[in-house]
Each structure stands twice: as structure tokens, then as C-alpha cells.
Design brief:
With 275 residues, this protein is of the alpha+beta class. The chain is 15% helix and 21% strand. The protein has one domain. The longest helix has 21 residues.
């Protein structure tokens, strides 16, 4: 075959392969039509996580705990704005978790309410995590997540995922872009969750193995298959930051004085009516 014919054949094979792997029903990668990715510098972001409540590192390899725990980064790396520096993160390890608090609580607004940022270096290299929220810091509620990634074969440590197979799993998008979540999906789940006063967000690594002894499942009972094993210091989900897209406005001193003045005027008028 001529070189041009070979190139055409390769192009046709590539397009055919793309049409097969991009078969999921959910939003595609950042920059593509229909993507829900939130840029780290999106003006819609109201606030960022302000403190670490708890960091629990997971093992480098859950099947071999003697190898030790993930250790890259610190909890502080998950505070404040995310960015495009893939090293400014905290790694959770297999099944590890981190709980963050917000000075300005997240509230349920129109559309997405928060976004979680990971450091994936490509649209297909994705490490995933479940996301949970809490009003009181004790009772946490998980967003219903779905993974349609086939589980017949384990995704390798540097394997690929199709983001269109993923829903409500943090890490769906590459570095610089957050995965968004809508609090309305948790409406009515419990009287212990105030959707207009979400003070805490917890990120939990999914582990990723399809081994029944250690596998994690989504809200439909599907095993979540993602890159495994990642037996190095930065293994597991790598958190860059958590943003509030709808935050309860901060009440400053001037506002408090104004409210106090309004209250005093109201009280004065009430007294004058009864004199």
C-alpha cells in the first residue's frame, strides 16, 4: 500500500476505535461538547475548602498492606484554589480519605453546587473517588455514583478510562478541571443533611481493583474499575482542591451593623406604636 493509503487506513481505524470507546451515556472530557468540566479559574466559583478535618491515608496496594501507606503531599495541599500544578496535591492511597471544611458553607443552588479537582495528566488517565457531604461533620451522605467501565479486565496502573462511562465520580476530568456535583441529587435523603448548610466534604478513593476481596461498588452495585495497582507514594486519588459553586454569603461587619441598626429601628417603631 502507498503511504497515503496506509495513513487513510490508520485514520479510519482510529475513528472507528474512538466511536467504540466513546460509547458511554455521560458527559465527555473537558473541552468537548457537552462536557460538565469546571475550570479552576471559573468565575462561578464562590469559595474553596478552608481547613482539613481529617486525613486518612490508604495503603500503596490494598492487597499488600506491608508496603506501607501513600505519602505524597499534605492535607494543606487540598486547601484554597486548585490549579494546573500536578504536584500541588495530596495523595490518598487505596481507599484513603480526606474530610475538608468550608468557612462559607455550600448551599443548594441552581445547577451544580461544588466541584472536586484531581491531577490527571490526560483525558483518559483518571483516578477516581466517591464524594460525600455533611452538615454536622458526623453524618455523611454519598452522591450516587455510576461506573460503566467494563470489569472483565483490570485497568492497569497507567491504564485508560472513558469519561463518558463515569458519573458523579471525582477525578472524571484532567488537571485544571473539576468534576461538578449537584446537591439537589441528595434532596430528602436525611433530615440530618441541610442542603443549604453543607459545611464538610469528604473525598474517598475508590481503590479501583476488580478483585472481589477489595473491590468497591457504585450506587448501582457495579464494581468501580480504575487504574490499579498504583503502588507508589502518590498512589490513589490525588486531590488538588474542592470548590463551592454556591456558597452562603459571608456576613461582614458592615452587614452586621446594618442588620443591628434595622433591628433597633424596628424595635423603636414597635415601642412608639404602643405608647
Amino acid at each position: 500500500m502507498k503511504t497515503t493509503e496506509i495513513l487513510r487506513a490508520l485514520m479510519a481505524m482510529t475513528l472507528s476505535y474512538a466511536s467504540v470507546v466513546q460509547a458511554g451515556p455521560y458527559a465527555p472530557a473537558a473541552g468537548q461538547v457537552g462536557s460538565t468540566a469546571v475550570p479552576f479559574d471559573d468565575p462561578a466559583i464562590d469559595a474553596w475548602a478552608s481547613s482539613v478535618v481529617e486525613l486518612t491515608r490508604g495503603p500503596l496496594n490494598i492487597a499488600h498492606p506491608s508496603l506501607g501507606l501513600a505519602s505524597f503531599g499534605s492535607g494543606a495541599s487540598a486547601l484554597g484554589p486548585a490549579g494546573t500544578n500536578s504536584s500541588a496535591i495530596v495523595s490518598l492511597g487505596d481507599g484513603g480519605s480526606i474530610t475538608l471544611a468550608f468557612a462559607q458553607p455550600i448551599k443548594n443552588g441552581i445547577g451544580f453546587d461544588l466541584a472536586v479537582f484531581e491531577n490527571g495528566f490526560a483525558d483518559e488517565f483518571l483516578e477516581l473517588a466517591f464524594v460525600e457531604v455533611s452538615s454536622n461533620g458526623v453524618d455523611f451522605f454519598r452522591f450516587p455514583a455510576v461506573s460503566l467501565t467494563p470489569t472483565t479486565t483490570q485497568v492497569g496502573g497507567f491504564g485508560s478510562l472513558d469519561p463518558t462511562n463515569l458519573f458523579n465520580l471525582a477525578g472524571k476530568y484532567r488537571v485544571g478541571y473539576g468534576t461538578p456535583f449537584d446537591l439537589n441529587e441528595l434532596a430528602g435523603i436525611s433530615p440530618l443533611l441541610n442542603l443549604d448548610q453543607v459545611n464538610y466534604v469528604r473525598i474517598v478513593d475508590v481503590v479501583g481493583t476488580i478483585d472481589p476481596a477489595f473491590a468497591r461498588t457504585d450506587s448501582l452495585g457495579n464494581v468501580v474499575n480504575d487504574p490499579y495497582a498504583t503502588a507508589f507514594a502518590s498512589g490513589g486519588f490525588d486531590l488538588d482542591g474542592v470548590a463551592a459553586l454556591h456558597a452562603v454569603p459571608e456576613v461582614n461587619a458592615a452587614t452586621l451593623l446594618t442588620l443591628a441598626a434595622i433591628g433597633l429601628v424596628g424595635a423603636s417603631l414597635k415601642r412608639s406604636r404602643h405608647q
